[in-house]
Design a protein that fits this description.
The chain is an alpha/beta fold and about 500 residues long. It folds into 3 domains: about 40-170, no CATH class; about 175-295, Rossmann fold (3-Layer(aba) Sandwich); about 300-490, no CATH class. Helices cover about 45% and strands about 15% of the residues. The chain is built from 16 helices and 16 strands. The chain has helices spanning about 45-65, 80-100, 110-135, 140-175, 185-200, 225-235, 245-260, 300-320, 320-335, 365-370, 390-400, 405-415, 425-430, 450-455, 460-470, 475-490, and strands at about 10, 15, 65-70, 70, 180-185, 205-210, 220, 240, 265, 280-285, 285-290, 340-345, 350-355, 415-420, 425, 445. The strands form 5 sheets. Strands 7-6-5-8-9-11-10 form a 7-stranded mixed β-sheet, with helices on both faces. It has a 3-stranded antiparallel β-sheet with strand order 13-12-15. A hairpin with a 2-residue loop joins β10 and β11 (about 285-290). The longest helix has about 30 residues, at about 140-175. The radius of gyration is 27 Å and the shape is flat.
């Protein structure tokens, strides 16, 4: 008989395995992308923000100088200015890159970062003015150039300071940050963990130590041999090794990390073999040697988030009359609020309030225990086709999935995406086994492969396999295809 699958118990300290079973096949499957970096940490996004801010400053200065009564003054070569503005924005972005301002490991203080920005702006300005001088152009106003340079030199450091504070707050609140395990709970490991905790703008969240010897330390979560299980339980992105001289152990960590697609960094000694030709950078005050790094489609994820924002705003505006009519109909049909708020497990198991139109009686949650024996789904999934708690109008809403429309608010807030695995209630999440956690590697969605291809399938395993297929094969075109196929699937009226 096979060993029982491990089951998780949640508490304030996070998930804990209470019945470990045999190694799951899901542990050997790659995790191609996990959006653990916010848009503000993306190099591409940061460069685009810099260039957009420079462009915005230029347009504002130009408008103040040459626009009156909403019209550009006669004889002013607007297209001429636009060309130089685009050139200047590109030069600023290029020199910021040259100063290392878009490096993920850049961790200097705000003053040093501001100084680097000023150097980049100065070099871009010198190159632009030299170009203007050599071209013999007499149409560009010195006042406009000086004003744009001055405002750019103030605005770019300001937005970086704002970004730094936002990252610190998001990491402190648990909404963001790269989850890490530190191999070695000795002096270096402890100092590294303390450094990350004091400098939360670095974006790292220490989930614990791996160390066979320091068993008395409450922050030691296990040994190196338990890395695959602990990486899944804690949704780990990266491993930091603070004992690189133990070569056999390092080899073992790297092999397991490669198998599970985890990043590995080393706080180096004079280390050879694996460290040959590896880039060395700094995270705060600590030098690190990057041995492995899984590629993250930063541009694709940034584009996905932009599509989510634009799509949810457009949907809320266009559907606002329908949303109001549905809310009124719910109030007329039964007692209780029109919007139902439910705590769900989202990305990396983080709880959020999911919004839906109420389709059941107001005290449906209190009655759930009494109807649980009627559950028609398999696994940690609760669903009843003819649920006695449903209201008359609620059946219609569910049939055409209209009850999901308020979740565009969740998408706008960043708790959900337009496309992704469906978010499960917390009581279903509590029944997850370790291999089920992989569906939480991405943000949950309003629609997904399951809604399109297996809407009436009662099998949780089928649901999970489609979720994993989406995660492992994700690209923007896949999202587009799912969105296109969602509307016909919803209009078919097969919802339950």
């Amino acid at each position: 008989m096979s060993d029982p699958a491990p089951v998780l118990v949640r508490n304030s300290g996070g998930p804990k395995v209470v019945a470990p079973g045999r190694r799951s096949e899901f542990q050997n499957r790659s995790r191609p992308f996990a959006p653990s970096r916010s848009w503000a940490e993306s190099r591409i996004a940061a460069c685009l923000v810099d260039m957009l801010l420079v462009s915005a400053v230029g347009l504002v200065v130009f408008s103040m100088r040459y626009t009156s009564a909403g019209h550009i003054r006669a004889g002013v070569p607007a297209s001429h200015y636009l060309g130089f503005l685009i050139l200047y924005a590109g030069l600023v972005g290029m020199f910021c890159q040259n100063q290392g301002l878009y490096q993920a490991w850049r961790t200097t203080g705000p003053l040093d970062e501001s100084f680097a920005v000023l150097k980049a702006v100065t070099m871009a300005t010198l190159l632009l003015t030299t170009f203007i001088y050599l071209s013999g152009d007499k149409l560009i106003s010195r006042f406009v150039v000086a004003s744009v340079v001055l405002l750019t030199a103030m605005l770019l450091p300001a937005w970086r300071f704002w970004k730094r504070e936002i990252i610190k707050r998001r990491v402190a609140s648990g909404r963001d940050g790269r989850h890490i395990l530190i191999v070695g709970a000795g002096e270096v490991g402890q100092a590294l963990a303390e450094h990350f905790e004091k400098n939360q703008y670095l974006g790292y969240v220490v989930k614990g130590f791996l160390d066979e010897n320091a068993v008395d330390d409450p922050r030691v979560v296990g040994s190196v041999s338990e890395l695959p299980r602990l990486a899944l339980v804690h949704f780990v992105d990266e491993i930091f090794i603070t004992m690189p001289s133990q070569r056999e152990m390092v080899d073992n960590v790297v092999l397991q990390a490669r198998e599970h697609n985890l990043d590995v960094k080393v706080v180096p000694e004079l280390f050879d073999r694996l460290g040959w030709r590896c880039p060395i950078g700094y995270i705060g005050d600590f030098p690190v040697m990057e041995l492995l790094r899984k590629p993250i489609p930063a541009l694709g994820l940034f584009t996905k988030r932009v599509i989510d924002i634009v799509g949810s705003v457009a949907a809320l505006v266009i559907l606002s009359p329908i949303l109001c009519l549905i809310a009124i109909a719910i109030k007329l049909d039964s007692d209780g609020p029109p919007i139902y708020r439910s705590s769900r497990a989202g990305w990396r198991g983080r709880k959020f309030l999911c919004y839906k139109f109420r389709t059941m009686v107001a005290n449906a949650d209190e009655l759930k225990a009494g109807v649980r024996h009627m559950n028609e789904r398999e696994g940690p999934f609760f669903k009843i086709t003819n649920d006695p708690r449903l209201t008359r109008f609620g059946k219609l809403l569910r049939r055409y999935s209209l009850d999901e429309l308020p979740q565009f608010l969740n998408v706008l807030q960043g708790d959900m995406s337009l496309v992704g695995p469906r978010p499960h209630p917390l009581d279903d999440y509590e029944q997850y086994q370790i291999e089920h956690l992989r569906r939480l590697d991405v943000r949950p969605g309003i629609t997904g492969l399951w809604q399109v291809y297996a809407r009436t399938d009662s099998s949780f395993d089928r649901n999970l396999s489609l979720d994993l297929e989406y995660i492992e094969n994700w690209n923007l075109w896949l999202d587009v295809k799912i969105l296109i196929k969602t509307l016909p699937a919803a209009l078919a009226g097969s919802g339950q």
